[in-house]
Automatic annotation (TrEMBL):
PROSITE patterns linked: NLPC_P60 (PS51935)
Source organism of this protein record: Ruegeria marisrubri
Superkingdom to which the source organism belongs: Bacteria
High-level lineage: Bacteria, Pseudomonadati, Pseudomonadota, Alphaproteobacteria, Rhodobacterales
PANTHER family associated with the record: NLP_P60 DOMAIN-CONTAINING PROTEIN-RELATED (PTHR47359:SF3), PEPTIDOGLYCAN DL-ENDOPEPTIDASE CWLO (PTHR47359)
Any Pfam family: NLPC_P60
Family statement drawn from the similarity comment of this UniProt entry: Belongs to the peptidase C40 family.
GO molecular function terms attached to this record: cysteine-type peptidase activity
Protein name (record): NLP/P60 hydrolase
One GO term (biological process): proteolysis
Stretches assigned to the NlpC/P60 domain: 122-245
Amino acid sequence: MTRRQITVPVVDLLRAPGGPRDRQLLFGDTVRVIEEREGMSRLVADKDGYSGWVPADVLGPVTEATHWVSAAATHVYARPDMKSPDRMSLSFGSRIAVQSESDTFVETGQGFIPKVHVQPEGIVMTDPVSVAELFLGTPYLWGGNSRFGLDCSGLVQAALLACGCPCPGDSGDQEAALGTALPPGSAPRRGDLLFWKGHVAWVADPQTLLHANAWHMAVQFEPLEAAIERIAAQGDGPVTAHKRL
């Protein structure tokens, strides 16, 4: 397998060439290419082991990241000047290789990024719910993993990876892998996860959920009990697990 790197802000990871999006990869994500076919590459993502297909031309040589984007999103500018043309937008969690830095900008091979929007590799956040709150209002996107659109499991994964915690990409795998199951009726607390069949939500406080959901088509807070009743009423069943990290 050949190690490569994503060179565009975000790309769909497809189930098959021309098939549906399963997840997404971000700028700087490293991957292992398994095979190439008619301009498409089948790969495995280093961050979570997820596999799928992307256009071969979004892959480039690996430049080891020195920093990561810790703001919800940022711009890459042509010059170290916020009034200069912006060349691309990068989502939270994107990995970059800094060549030099000043008091206000870091320089990368793609351009200049505000220094306040990045953190050095190895610096992690400590509260995944606070990370998830950065995505408030982000539009819901099935299989999405970026500030430009994400789904329930994408929100959970982004928050946990930013805190240095390994996390699968899909809610079913997250339910199996994350945390400790609590008995039914346990009092929820901030940082817990509630799972349904095909859905997951953060507990923001004992009365409130934070989740990317198709009802609001966005990342939103929702009263916990009301959400449980709504999800059951719409035919998606009861809570299947209450997990504590």
